[in-house]
Amino acid sequence: MPTGLLSFYERALRVSIYYAILYGMSKKGRIENASTRATEWIGTPASLVAHTMFFVACFFFVLAGVPLDAVLLILTTAVSLEAIYLAIFIQMTVNRNTRSLEEVEEDIEEIQEDVKEIETMWMRYQKMWRRFRAT
After folding, report:
1. Which end of the chain is less congested by CB atoms within 10 angstroms, N or C?
2. Is there a contact between 5 and 108 (Cβ–Cβ < 8 Å)?
3. What's residue 100's pLDDT?
4. What are the helix (H) ranges across the chain?
5. How many CA atoms lie within 13 A of 129 on its CB side?
6. How do residues 50-91 score in pLDDT, each as one tens digit?
7. Domain ranges of the chain
8. Whole-prediction pTM value?
């Protein structure tokens, strides 16, 4: 097997191992796993329903006799904290995707180099074949 083709298969194997690691076979810390699960859950319809129920439930405290100012203060604080955490989760996702894209980009560049090498070798073999048939 030509050397260029072998390195192509080695790189393809590396890419497949990378994707296996990327999609859950890696050993992540508890905090990273929890943040990944939270980020995935926040974008679901269940999250939308849960948040809506929470905000509606907050106003039932007013009916229970809690002053509106206190309810709004607590609700505003909760919404502000949630916005901070959402921004952090978004940035974590962006960072994770950026890292994975950079690694994939490097692999693609290596594969493109291998393809060019294979094309060059193929052209040489075609020329050799034409010479051989001409003789």
Report:
1. C
2. no
3. 82
4. 3-20, 30-42, 45-63, 68-134
5. 6
6. 889 988 988 899 999 999 999 999 999 999 998 998 888 888
7. 3-134
8. 0.53
